[in-house]
Amino acid sequence: MVVKVYGPAYASPKRVLLCLVEKEIDFETVPVDLIAGENLTPDYLQLQPFGSLPVIQDGDYILFESRAIIRYYAEKYKTQGTDLLGKTLEDQGLVNQWLEVEAHNYHPPLINLVLHIMFSPHFGIVRNEQVIKESEEKLAKVLDVYEDRLSKSKYLAGDFFSLADLSHIPFTSYLVGPVGKEYMIKERKHVSAWWDDISSRPSWLKVLEICK
Amino acid sequence: MVVKVYGPIQAACPQRVLACLFEFGVDFELITVDLDSNEHKQPDFLQKQPFGQVPVVEDGEFRLFESRAIIRYYATKYGDKNRNLYGTTLEEKALVDQWLEVEAHHFNDMVYTIVLQKLVIPKMGGRTDFDLVHNCEKKLEQVFDIYEQRLSKNNYLAGNWFTLADLSHLPGIRYLMNECELGHLVRDRKKVNLWWDDISNRPAWKKVMQMFNGQG
């Protein structure tokens, strides 16, 4: 019985798909149409009471929150596929640190840009130019810190590709694509090199292929 | 060499770390960072935490920031002292991570906004956006309804033992119950209320509160 991943069309579930591909774990996907409100049906809310994507079903085991799911599979299959956690306890500490940075500093301004530019007027979002401007400014400051970090370290947590880098891929792909702000990445030499590296990984190309 | 924790005792994120260190009996030294005078945005602090946020810990040569990364690190490092805090199987651990993520994304953002609007902005001479506060309160009602359902099936969020997921809520709920005057969110819900009374009476949290009240 393979792992079922709900909501592959969207970015957060793609974090999970990326991890599963890197770890060479078989899976199947179950579509969930957010615009049609399929995440708010009683059936879906039984699995994920907050109505967010993704959720996974692995036999009887149900887990939600993409960053919890990727931590689980990265550890459960530590010796298979790419090592996404690092070798020491301290390595893992740094992976978690940069995963938290992505969640609390990088993601919030970026999700604003995604919602206002890509998804309005759906989900009750009214496009607001002030929110877009402020979110871009916040994201720019975060990217400046990343530029400094990546001038000293090949990847965020150290010299190895980890869950921390992986977690950035789906939404950054929106940023350089449909959100139309590729310059935010390209204008920063080390961030740009890092993005070119992580977005050309076979796992990401495979995820894009699966979700076409 | 004791663990150095940088941050003010009044702030939620350092409290999260201290609660965890007390749970594991890890000795530490708290080095205050004065947020009011913008100490966290000065070059010396930015060297330690480039986003200018508290807390950051220094454990010998090892430096780590982001409170939820720090508590995961110590719970793993000292797991032998208390296996249940971060799960005894990978599946249990993942449920702890799941509810830690729920706290971080569904709960924390609302509390942070309410504290900013009701406490921080007026202190800086600005005006509270009461519509925004009301919206956050409504969202928190929905979150706590889900917690009520969850806690009617399990004693704690991730299962039947106290874990990092419950611990992570302590500072935020304390703010809601006190300065934010939104205690009804907890008190109106039978299971959430029992859970709060249980977790807030843990010796480790009481030690954090002693420090907070200037007695520790």
TrEMBL record, chain A:
Pfam families: GST_C (PF00043), GST_N (PF02798)
Keywords from the named record: Transferase
Catalysed reactions listed for this entry: RX + glutathione = an S-substituted glutathione + a halide anion + H(+)
Domain of life from the UniProt record: Eukaryota
Enzyme class: transferase
Any one GO molecular function term: glutathione transferase activity
Annotated ranges, domain GST C-terminal: 88-212
TM segment ranges: none
Assigned EC number: 2.5.1.18
Record-given protein name: glutathione transferase
From TrEMBL, chain B:
Keyword Zinc-finger appears in the UniProt entry: no
CDD domains: GST_C_Phi, GST_N_Phi
UniProt domain GST N-terminal: residue ranges: 1-82
GO cellular component: cytoplasm
Entry-linked Pfam families: GST_C, GST_N
InterPro entries reported for this sequence: Glutathione-S-Trfase_C-like, Glutathione-S-Trfase_C_sf, Glutathione_S-Trfase, Glutathione_S-Trfase_N, GST_C, GST_Phi_C, Thioredoxin-like_sf
Domain GST C-terminal, chain residue ranges per copy: 89-216
PROSITE patterns named among the record's database cross-references: GST_CTER, GST_NTER
Keywords: Transferase
Taxonomic superkingdom: Eukaryota
SUPFAM superfamilies xrefs: GST C-terminal domain-like, Thioredoxin-like
Keyword Transferase set for record: yes
Catalytic activity: RX + glutathione = an S-substituted glutathione + a halide anion + H(+)
Similarity field: Belongs to the GST superfamily. Phi family.
Protein name as it appears in the record: glutathione transferase
Source taxonomy: Eukaryota, Viridiplantae, Streptophyta, Embryophyta, Tracheophyta
